[in-house]
Specification:
alpha/beta; Rossmann fold; 2 domains; 7-stranded mixed beta sheet; two-stranded antiparallel sheet; 42% helix; 21% strand; globular; CE1759_FMN_reduct; Flavoprotein-like_sf; FMN_Rdtase-like_dom; FMN
């Protein structure tokens, strides 16, 4: 059974951020049940409950018991869903602080689905200008479809389709893992792309950048 961790940075109870994370996890689980029947074990990490330990870790360098367990869960998962509310046109400080204390190699080659919530659709670009670069820096394999839910999106047409598409992409990458010891992007993380040959990652063909440039050269 694959492991899926949802990291939610919602601050309120109930939280639209947690709700979006739950819907994404449910869609991944449903897809896994329909595809392989193997199922997915889901664990939710609520950063609101870890705020004090995160602050202590930033100042002392040592995680408390609850934070240590959360960090271990993220490092050991087969797939990761991360959801943050939008504050000041970016991810929340609590969200960023959690990934600041995570081991820098913990997400290398790991499939990640990024999502965010906000009061207005005008903040949807946070997914591309803030969240995707953060996880690219951490060398995660970020799925192509990111999900943003504004206040008016709940119950409206379109959100369910985006959730389904993103969940399907994450599920495909998770099913490419080898017994939980590797990662969906293991070929990329191990340098297979550096060999100059295209590789398959979760059903997607990853073409080396040098090869793409060569194809654009004019004779």
């Amino acid at each position: 059974m694959k492991k899926l961790v949802v990291v939610s940075a919602g601050l309120s109870v109930p939280s639209s951020t947690r709700l979006l994370g739950d819907r994404l996890a449910a869609a991944v689980s449903a897809g896994a049940d329909a595809g392989t029947g193997a199922g997915v074990e889901v664990q939710v990490v609520e950063l609101r409950d870890l705020a004090v330990e995160i602050a202590h870790n930033l100042t002392t360098g040592f995680p408390g018991p609850a934070l240590g367990a959360a960090l271990a869960a993220v490092a050991g998962t087969d797939g990761l869903i991360v959801v943050t509310p939008v504050f000041s046109a970016s991810y929340s400080g609590l969200f960023k602080s959690f990934f600041d204390v995570l081991d820098r190699d913990a997400l290398a080659g790991k499939p990640v689905l990024v999502a965010a919530t906000g009061g207005s659709a005008r903040h949807s670009l946070v997914l591309e200008h803030a969240m995707r670069p953060l996880f690219a820096y951490l060398r995660a394999v970020v799925v192509p479809t990111a999900v943003y839910a504004a206040s008016e999106d709940w119950g409206a047409e379109g959100l369910a389709q985006r959730i389904g598409r993103a969940a399907g992409e994450l599920g495909a990458l998770m099913s490419a893992t080898a017994g939980g010891a590797g990662s969906a992007g293991s070929a990329v993380a191990a340098g297979a792309v550096g060999s100059g040959e295209a590789v398959q990652v979760g059903g997607f063909e990853v073409v080396p950048f040098a090869e793409q440039l060569a194809a654009l050269r004019v004779p």
